[in-house]
Design a protein that fits this description.
Helix content is 36%, strand content 13%. By secondary structure, it is an alpha/beta fold. Bound molecules: S-adenosylmethionine (SAM).
Length: 345
């Protein structure tokens, strides 16, 4: 802290937050009515505004949306469809499809990350309370490491109510380095703070748009395998698991304390086989091992019964500028497969 005033301000922030913690936000709202004027009205949303992910997420698919979509035959969305995303993360493809295709009658999303899924649920069911809490945090946000540190400690103390947990989850996502979510072996969030001049902590419009779209979405928290129970007679699965690392050092698999190793990749392939046996569609993304080893046929062999497409993408997860660039990624689908042919023999 640079001077005494900063210190005084910081103490006032902490006191205010304590008020919040003890009162569920009520005392603070009363005290700061003029600053926190929640004008939002979910019914007044502009239909032309497209919703988008409310968090930055490692492996987010923002830049690949149209390439993934191009694998789907143009008439697929003409009649009603169930959409299932077992590794939803930030949900870039989910929000894109829900916006574009009203024939998606229902959707199911799942992720193993409990804080993320709590936040989806809060956005779906209590967006206004969340916006109110985030506005409080945004208002009090001083670019002091101490403020972020205090919020992170509180987040890692666990046991917060769902609205505060979701608000701090979003706050940390928008102020930490590259918006990563990474935990240590004890499951505690450990991403260093980023250096942003003016981070938008409360993106009210996006939260309200997302909330509107999430009304038809069933939200699950756990292993991807549980989503198989939700398939319908016309279902599309989009599977975007943690990527198989291209090199040992590029590994980024700590979205949760569970590792997603080659055995997990094989288990996921079995899951795709089950989708196919049930005569439903899937598209799966993964890294292309051939970027670093032309002889590595891991996915080519695993998914030899399906269509393996190679597309080009910029890598965002690598912090070193020199290592960013176009590399190929895999998009595997079963749109043209003869359902069941390979498994009933
Ligand atoms: C590559 S990210 C998904 C990115 C997402 N498509 C997006 O646009 O942001 C992979 C996700 O899988 C989740 N995950 C890891 N292991 C899982 C498991 N066994 N079952 C379900 N989700 C899992 C992680 O928490 C992470 O959010």
């Amino acid at each position: 802290m640079k001077n005494k005033n900063d210190y005084k301000n910081f103490i006032s922030v902490l006191c205010t937050l304590n008020c919040l913690e003890n009162s569920g936000g009520g005392a603070f709202q009363e005290q700061n009515k003029s600053e926190i004027n929640l004008k939002s009205d979910i019914t007044k949303l502009n239909n032309n505004i497209f919703s988008k992910p409310f968090v930055k997420w490692a492996g987010g698919k923002k830049q690949l949306l149209t390439q993934i979509e191009s694998l789907i035959p143009s008439d697929f969305f003409q009649s009603s469809v169930t959409y299932i995303e077992p590794f939803v993360g930030g949900g870039a493809f989910l929000f894109y499809l829900l916006n574009k295709y009203p024939t998606i009658e229902s959707a199911v999303i799942n992720d193993i990350n409990e804080d993320l899924i709590t936040t989806y649920n809060i956005i779906k069911n209590k967006p206004l309370e969340l916006i109110s809490f985030l506005k409080q945090i945004q208002y009090e946000f001083y670019k002091l490491d101490e403020f972020e540190k205090q919020k992170r400690q509180r987040f890692n103390s666990k046991g917060l109510d769902d609205i505060e947990n979701s608000a701090i989850f979003i706050f940390l996502n928008r102020t930490c380095f590259n918006g990563l979510y990474r935990v240590n072996s004890k499951g505690l969030f450990n991403v260093p703070f980023g250096k942003y001049t003016n981070p938008l902590i409360c993106d009210e419009q996006t939260l309200l748009e997302d909330s509107k779209l999430l009304q038809k979405v069933e939200i699950l928290n756990g292993d991807f395998s549980q989503t198989l129970d939700y398939l319908n007679n016309k279902t599309l699965f989009y599977l975007d698991p943690p990527y198989r690392p291209l090199t040992i050092t590029s590994s980024f698999t700590s979205y949760s304390s569970e590792r997603f190793d080659d055995n997990e990749q094989k288990r996921l392939c079995e899951f795709c086989n089950l989708i196919n046996n049930n005569k439903q569609k899937f598209i799966l993304s993964n890294s292309d091992p051939k970027n670093t080893n032309a002889n590595d046929n891991f996915f080519d062999e695993l998914y030899s019964n399906f269509n393996i497409n190679r597309i080009y993408a910029k890598r965002a997860i690598n912090s070193k500028g020199s290592k960013r660039g176009d590399i190929s990624e895999l998009l595997i689908d079963n749109f043209n497969s003869n359902f069941g042919e390979f498994y009933n023999a």
